[in-house]
Amino acid sequence: MIPVKSFGLAKGRLADSLSADERRDLSRTCAETVVAAAAPWPVYVVCSDSETARWAHSLGARVVLCEQPGLDTAVAAGRAAVRTDGLDHVVIAHADLPLARTFAGVPRAGRVSLVPDRHRDGTNVLSMPVDSAMPTAYGPGSFANHLDLARASGLEIDVIDDPDLALDLDTVEDLDELSRRRHTP
């Protein structure tokens, strides 16, 4: 499942460094990379606008419309759709992972798996049994929050340090890191 913010609104924190068109293109390119990395699994894109829904359909993704604001609300809507379709495990990946190649090593049956961001503050990828009682708690400190929530739910936890999945694009420093990695042999 990939929650995707409207491309026109995404990456607002980069407004001082990138134009609106550059932020839109970056957001779309990253999201396409994440959708491709999820293959061959069924992909659910949770979004709130028709442009993003059309984009997701064009990539063969299932669309879950969620007009309520907030990442946790979007994830809950996506989990409900995954559950309704009879799947027993969900991998939740942010749409701004430019180096995502695969999520194959993330899900572990009956367990929670977390891939923290490169600062070990946020949760870039979270995998869990779809019917677990564990809620999500995205935002600052979500990695520690998700560890606590998994423990409180009685679930076993795997922390996966994956340098490609750990790079998300929120700041100018993240863009610099992406540039460095792409230009390092």
Descriptive overview:
The protein has 185 residues and is α/β, with parallel strands linked by helices. It has one domain: Spore Coat Polysaccharide Biosynthesis Protein SpsA, Chain A (Alpha-Beta Complex), CATH 3.90.550. Helices cover 36% and strands 17% of the residues. It has six helices and seven strands; from the N terminus they run βαβαβαβββαβαα. The strands form two sheets. The protein has a four-stranded mixed β-sheet with strand order 4-6-5-7, with helices on one face. Strands 1-2-3 form a three-stranded parallel β-sheet, with helices on both faces. β2, α2 (50-58) and β3 form a beta-alpha-beta unit. The longest helix is centred in the first third of the chain and has 18 residues, at 20-37.
Task: Considering the chains and any ligands shown, give keywords for the structure.
about 180 residues; 7 strands; four-stranded mixed sheet; alpha/beta; single chain; Spore Coat Polysaccharide Biosynthesis Protein SpsA, Chain A; three-stranded parallel sheet
CATH topology: Spore Coat Polysaccharide Biosynthesis Protein SpsA, Chain A
Can you tell me the CATH class? Alpha Beta
- Low-confidence stretches are none
- Based on secondary structure, the structural category is alpha/beta
Helix content range: 25-40%
As for the number of domains, it is 1
- Give, in order, the helices and strands: EHEHEHEEEHEHH
Q: Could you give the distance between the termini?
A: 32 Å
Query: What can be said about the biggest beta sheet?
Result: 4 strands, mixed
Radius of gyration: 16 Å
The CATH architecture? Alpha-Beta Complex
Order of strands across the biggest sheet?
4-6-5-7
Share of β-strand residues? 15-25%
Mean pLDDT: 95
Q: How many β-strands, per DSSP?
A: 7
Shape: globular
Give me the number of helical elements: 6
CATH homologous superfamily caption = Spore Coat Polysaccharide Biosynthesis Protein SpsA, Chain A
